[in-house]
Amino acid sequence: MTVTWEELGWERLAAGVGRCRLPGWDCTAGLVVGDGTALIVDAGSSLGEGVRLRTQAQWLAGHRVTHLALTHPHFDHVFGAAAFAGAEVYGAVGVDTVLDGRHARDELRGDAVRNGLDAAAAEEAVDALVHPHHLVSGEWTLDLDGARQVLLANVGPAHTAHDLVVLVPGDPEVVFCGDLVEASGEPQAGPDAVPSHWPAALDRLLDLGGEDALYVPGHGAVVDAEFVRRQRDALAARFGVSR
Known about the structure:
5-stranded mixed beta sheet, 243 residues
């Protein structure tokens, strides 16, 4: 079955690179297609959503999803991960403690239900939570097919204690930011945020991506470097972080 990105509601950002905005929480999922490989960035908010993402990604790539990167351990980004059976899963170092500990899992379930996810869907997703196979503590160059490489960078703590970004070289370069950047509302700082480090994480993000990159927020429309810079300054002012 041959379909276009647009027919499936995906936004094509560069050759073999795109994203979709999932319903409910306007959460982004990304796709990077290689020759015989496919990387998904974030997995959606439930197993059902993960299955839909996997199915659409396979239609667009023409083959199965081989890699999954989780930008941070919030339910709307990780609860669909178990749908990607057989994929190599990547996360920031320490994220496994959030996805494994009973208290942390209870917190994830509770947060999902408080935000409107059906309790049965939340329970199902927590029971099936996937642990990353590879934990990134700095930078990790992921070779998708010998010609296409992406960079996974642990730039946190910031939005959470375990923030991973995905940089896809090309023209333009595409940076999947997770919730380090948000464009559909003010960035959310929950109890697991580290606000004092957040502006520095965005400085690192800008250093990696540069002025001409497309920055893909965890929620909302694709933005440019100037938007990220303004959000960095607003966060510094909001949390009293000196430049």
